[in-house]
Write a structure and sequence with these properties.
With about 550 residues, the protein is an alpha+beta fold. The protein folds into two domains: about 140 residues, no CATH class; about 290 residues, paralog of FGE (formylglycine-generating enzyme). Helix content is about 20%, strand content about 10%. Strands 1-2-5-15-8 form a five-stranded antiparallel sheet. Strands 13-12-11-14 form a four-stranded mixed sheet. β9 and β10 form a beta hairpin. α1 packs across α4. The longest helix is centred in the middle third of the chain and has 22 residues. The mean pLDDT is about 90.
Length: about 550
């Protein structure tokens, strides 16, 4: 319950406690003086009566909106975001170190307008933040679909990035920028200022519209105003947590070779595979992973993967050889909507690239839903079915290897083993009303902006199925890439402690492992961790299951 200015177009975004949009409003509303508006009428059947029970909000008088700035104005990259980069980023990202791929041509201090009339600084920065694109699809979006927590740039800063710790106002600006679809310009007038003919035309229209609003609607605000000078940022003196010095730690008999892993699996005795039948030709195949011990974590990533520590897997367990696909998940929840992967283009007639095909790994289920699937499957099969703990997941992924990837170093050719962000993902550079890949747009800073490792090609630019690549030594597919995977464990600090780290608390963030088709290898190692709240469905996160004996 809140008051809005009359005769003014309003778009609503519900925010979480950090000020990040949970849902994006796909339209707008306008209220006349004295009018009361409600969501009821659009989002319910026309024959359904209004809800009569009182809500918490209706027990108070309508609240006043606290303006973001003292006046109505456009939110522009140069005035809001560039000052954040100037305060925190340009001391390293000045474009001088061309030997490092992440630094090459990424000078965050270069504000000169270049290709498509954006700055080099904008081009270098915007690609690390998810948003719907110029128009996206035309259906009601899922809550949390474009939540700021799904952006690589936000994740990197939250985990700690070379000591950078943003102040509260800078975080607020960054979240607002993401939720406004990462704009560069703050108004139509400033967009068309690049063209002398259109500038005068747009300026005249804006001035005429403003005069009509003042005369007939009593609205004096200049909706086209964008500040001429940037809003300054005072950098905090606090530093983010940085990786610790490596510690000496070992585990008996670890690491071991792929051949040793296979022998270890055989020597454990009994069958090595089992199939759980879900009916109608749908099944889940499980692989037996032996007990053992290993060193969990990494000294080559962030403080969240430290300290490296020895973990003992006391009992063998069964784990699904691939991620749970849509066929299996739809058996449990037929109305689950995996939706689409966005096309990042405008004027299109397709919603995007469909994620609901039965052979595709299921995505966009929350941790709660993944756990509910496990409970359903366990009851159906008479087994103890759970999500894997982080320790089980990493032990199964590594299959004896102490390298970043189960098949080698992080810089090795992953194309035979994993679906990651590689050359193929350039096919997201599309154009046309029915968008198709436009090879001429490859390298274009506006149309082709998904970070990738272009020297390798795994032949897939999206998720098209499971079991497409070579399995690890224990016969597990897609532990790296394809879709990231929920684990049972809390996204808590190491060392991992069995039971304690797997609290099943409904309020704690849950650890996600393995990276996805949308991630470069550094985000898909055996040890790299991310965390999401348990009620959040994520576009590139699925799961696999374990059966404990």
């Amino acid at each position: 319950m809140f008051r809005i200015p009359a005769n003014t177009t309003i778009s609503i975004q519900p925010l979480d406690k950090e000020g990040r949009a949970v849902q994006l409003f796909r339209s707008w509303l306008v209220a006349m003086p004295g009018e009361e508006l409600s969501c009821i009428g659009c989002h319910e059947p026309p024959t359904e009566p209004p809800v009569t029970s009182k809500t918490a909000a209706s027990g108070k008088a309508p609240q006043a909106i606290k303006p973001y700035r003292p006046r109505v104005e456009g939110f522009a990259f140069d005035t809001e975001i560039q000052p954040v980069l100037d305060a925190y980023c340009v001391r390293c990202h000045d474009g001088s170190d061309i030997k490092k791929p992440d630094f090459k041509n990424k000078a965050l201090l270069d504000t000169k307008k270049v290709e498509e009339h954006y700055s080099n600084s904008y081009h270098a920065f915007h690609k690390y933040f998810r948003r719907p694109g110029p128009e996206s699809n035309g259906i009601m979006g899922n809550p949390y679909e474009y939540h700021a927590s799904t952006s690589e740039g936000v994740q990197l800063l939250e985990k700690g990035h070379h000591g950078v710790k943003l102040d509260a106002d800078s975080w607020r600006r960054l979240y607002t920028w993401i939720d406004l679809n990462v704009p560069f310009y703050g108004s139509w007038t400033s967009v068309y200022a690049i063209d002398e003919k259109k500038e005068s035309w747009t300026t005249n229209i804006a001035a005429h519209a403003a005069s009509l609003r003042a005369k007939y609607a009593n609205v004096e605000s200049n909706w086209e105003y964008t500040p001429a000078e940037p809003y300054p940022v005072t950098a905090t003196k606090e530093k983010s947590e940085e990786p610790l010095a490596p510690v000496a730690v070992s585990a008996a008999g670890w690491p071991f070779t792929a051949e040793a892993a296979r022998q270890m699996q055989k020597q454990a005795g009994g069958q090595q595979k089992r199939v759980v039948d879900l009916g109608n030709g749908v099944s889940v195949t499980l692989v037996r992973v032996p007990a053992g011990e290993f060193v969990m974590g990494s000294d080559d990533e962030t403080a969240l993967e430290q300290p490296r520590h020895r973990v003992k897997i006391a009992k063998a367990f069964w784990i699904s050889e691939s991620e749970i696909n849509n066929a299996a998940f739809f058996t449990f929840k037929p109305d689950h909507n995996a939706s689409v992967f966005d096309q990042q283009w405008k004027d299109h007639v397709r919603l995007g690239y469909y994620a609901n095909y039965v052979e595709q790994p299921a995505v966009r289920m929350s941790w709660n839903d993944a756990g509910a699937f496990c409970a359903w499957l366990g009851k159906k099969a008479g087994l103890k079915v759970l999500l894997p703990t982080e320790a089980q997941w990493e032990w199964a992924c590594r299959a004896g290897s102490d390298s970043a990837m189960s098949f080698g170093p992080v810089g090795s050719d992953f194309s035979p083993y994993a679906n990651l962000a590689d050359k193929s993902i350039e096919r997201l550079a599309v154009s046309g009303v029915n968008p198709v890949f436009n090879k001429g747009l490859v390298g274009n800073k506006v149309h082709d902006f998904v970070p990738r490792v272009a020297e390798f090609d795994d032949k897939q630019f999206l998720v098209t199925g499971t079991r497409q690549y070579q399995p690890n030594a224990w016969g597990l597919y897609d532990m790296h890439g394809n879709v990231a995977e929920w684990t049972r464990s809390d996204y808590a600090r190491y060392p991992y402690v069995a039971g304690k780290s797997d609290s099943l608390s409904p309020s704690e963030k849950k650890a996600v492992r393995g990276g996805s088709f949308f991630d470069r290898p550094y985000r898909a190692t055996s040890s790299y961790r991310l965390g999401y709240v348990p009620w959040q469905g994520v576009f590139n996160v699925g799961f696999r299951v374990v059966v404990e004996e």
